[in-house]
């Protein structure tokens, strides 16, 4: 389970949960004393965002349907899946956010009229502020406000303990959505603090059905996981967290998101929305 970005919950999660530190590998979760260590914000082997939408129809055999219901509007679930695919497809070791530039992996026209903004990814324990300068042709952008992605692996010792039943689940297809639902209800009780042009914004809780994400060899652990499960470069994944779609007028806008784990990290988007009705050469 790897976390993309995370923020500190404003409420304390249940003390009985055996949840991992944001900056630990998931297997370490089982070694934590939840009372002595205290519940910590976020998850590391969760994460937690456009690869080719044709990520191989045959790959859907990797993803087993589950009884757990996804959370949130379906159109937002689909956008969250695509944003997570975009993140994982472009992530390399050492990246603080992915993609590393706004237009990597997608055109200025975005996905179905919505531009998918890059996502902060607390994967290797790195911290720091990130700034993006984005030029888009859409009037809507998808913003991540904290979340995680559960990705599959073949390690039998990589387990998640459900806080509701204490059942231990491996990170395998068929379990990922259940794990992500649990994480959402424990760690992501509220969205990260964020503003657009100085005005506070909120978001919508999202948990997605499992889907297939592409990972690159330069993301060594994720790619290693994909090799271990027998389909190099592909991982079954589920996203859980907070998203919001912002409608922006043509012109310049500034979006700021404050994500915190053990330290506070700020991600800033300087966005210029092009006026689609404007003729080239006019200023």
Annotation keywords:
5-stranded mixed β-sheet, disordered N terminus, 29% strand, 283 residues, disordered C terminus, single chain, alpha+beta
Can you tell me about this structure?
β8 and β9 form a beta hairpin. Strands 2, 5, 10, 11 and 12 form a 5-stranded mixed sheet that branches. Helix content is 14%, strand content 29%. It has a domain of 184 residues. With 283 residues, it is an alpha+beta fold.
In short:
With 283 residues, the protein is of the alpha+beta class.
Question: N-to-C SSE series?
Answer: HHEEEEEEEHEEEEHEEE
Number of helices: 4
Q: What is the rounded distance between the termini?
A: 47 Å
Helicity level: 10-25%
Low-confidence blocks of residues:
3-45, 47-67, 279-283
Kindly name the structural category.
alpha+beta
Number of strands: 14
Q: Taking Cα atoms only, what radius of gyration do you get, to the nearest Å?
A: 18 Å
The major beta sheet can be summarized as: 5 strands, mixed
Question: Per the principal axes of the C-alpha atoms, what is the gross shape?
Answer: globular
> What percent strand?
25-35%
Mean pLDDT across all residues, rounded?
76
Write the layout of secondary structure elements.
Layout (H helix, E strand, L loop, with lengths): L33 H4 L36 H17 L6 E2 L15 E3 L2 E2 L9 E7 L3 E12 L7 E3 L6 E3 L5 H11 L6 E4 L2 E3 L2 E4 L3 E4 L5 H9 L5 E14 L3 E10 L3 E10 L10
Parallel strand pairs: 2-5, 4-14
Antiparallel strand pairs: 1-3, 5-12, 6-7, 8-9, 8-13, 10-12, 11-12, 13-14
């Amino acid at each position: 389970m790897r976390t993309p970005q995370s923020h500190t919950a404003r409420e304390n999660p249940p003390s009985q949960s055996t949840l991992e530190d944001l900056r630990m590998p998931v297997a370490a979760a089982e070694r934590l004393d939840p009372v002595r260590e205290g519940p910590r914000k976020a998850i590391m082997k969760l994460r937690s965002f456009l690869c080719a939408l044709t990520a191989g129809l045959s790959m859907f055999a990797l993803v087993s349907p589950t009884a757990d219901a996804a959370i949130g509007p379906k159109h937002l679930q689909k956008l969250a899946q695509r944003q997570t695919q975009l993140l994982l497809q472009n992530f390399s070791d050492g990246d603080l956010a992915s993609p590393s530039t706004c237009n990597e992996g997608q055109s200025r026209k975005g996905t179905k009229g919505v531009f998918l903004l890059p996502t902060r990814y607390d994967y290797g324990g790195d911290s720091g502020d990130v700034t993006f300068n984005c030029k888009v042709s859409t009037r809507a952008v998808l913003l991540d406000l904290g979340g995680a992605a559960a990705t599959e692996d073949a390690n039998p010792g990589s387990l998640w303990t459900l806080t509701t039943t204490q059942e231990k689940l491996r990170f395998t297809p068929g379990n990922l959505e259940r794990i992500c639902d649990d994480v959402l209800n424990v760690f992501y009780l509220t969205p990260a603090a964020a503003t657009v042009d100085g005005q506070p914004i909120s978001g919508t809780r999202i948990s997605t059905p499992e889907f297939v994400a592409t990972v690159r060899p330069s993301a060594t652990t994720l790619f290693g996981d994909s090799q271990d499960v027998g389909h190099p470069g592909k991982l079954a994944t589920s996203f859980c967290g907070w998203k919001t779609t912002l409608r922006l007028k043509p012109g310049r806008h500034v979006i700021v998101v404050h994500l915190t784990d053990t330290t506070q990290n700020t991600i800033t988007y300087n966005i210029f929305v092009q006026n689609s009705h404007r003729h080239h050469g006019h200023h």
